[in-house]
């Protein structure tokens, strides 16, 4: 659709968005951070280092998908 994709897409998501690895379903939660990469709690997915990868399966950031806004859900 547009000339850019990948990381640029993440910038429009809410900073508290949780992201799920499309390979192993590991969830990155900004409220928790990432012990493996020594990412402090409160770090948005969009603010992760460019070379950040899934701590479980080493998938690149581009493999992660938006999991939801954490509003409780119930419908779907
Ligand atoms: Zn993974």
Description:
The protein has 76 residues and is mainly beta. It has a single domain, classed as Rubrerythrin, domain 2, CATH 2.20.28.10. It is 5% helix and 14% strand. The protein is built from one helix and three strands, in the order H-E-E-E. The chain has one helix spanning 7-10, and strands at 18-21, 27-28, 64-68. The protein has a three-stranded antiparallel sheet with strand order 2-1-3, with no helix packed on it. A hairpin with a 5-residue loop joins strand 1 and strand 2. The radius of gyration is 12 Å and the shape is globular. The mean pLDDT is 84. Zinc ion binds next to loops. Zinc ion is lined by residues 21, 23-24, 26, 54, 56-57, 59.
Task: Produce a short descriptive summary.
This protein has 76 residues and is mainly beta.
Output the radius of gyration: 12 Å
Report the average pLDDT across residues.
84
The fold-level CATH name is Rubrerythrin, domain 2
Q: What is the class in the CATH system?
A: Mainly Beta
Overall 3D shape: globular
Strand content: 5-15%
Count of strand segments: 3
> Which structural category do the helix and sheet elements fall into?
mainly beta
Query: Could you tell me which ligands this complex binds, including any ions or cofactors?
Result: zinc ion
The amount of helix comes to under 10%
> What CATH architecture do you see?
Single Sheet
Distinct helical segment count:
1
Overall structural domain count: 1
* Poorly predicted runs: none
Strand order of the largest sheet: 2-1-3
The biggest sheet, with number of strands, parallel, antiparallel or mixed sense and barrel status, is:
3 strands, antiparallel
Q: Alpha-carbon distance between the termini?
A: 27 Å
Give the topology string: H per helix, E per strand: HEEE
């Amino acid at each position: 659709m547009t000339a850019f994709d990948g990381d640029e897409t993440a910038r429009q998501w809410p900073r508290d968005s949780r992201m799920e690895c499309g390979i192993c379903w590991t969830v990155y939660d900004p409220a928790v951070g990432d012990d493996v990469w020594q990412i402090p709690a409160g770090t948005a997915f969009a603010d992760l280092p460019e070379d950040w990868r899934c701590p479980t399966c080493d998938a690149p950031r581009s493999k992660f998908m938006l999991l939801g806004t954490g509003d409780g859900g119930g419908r779907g």
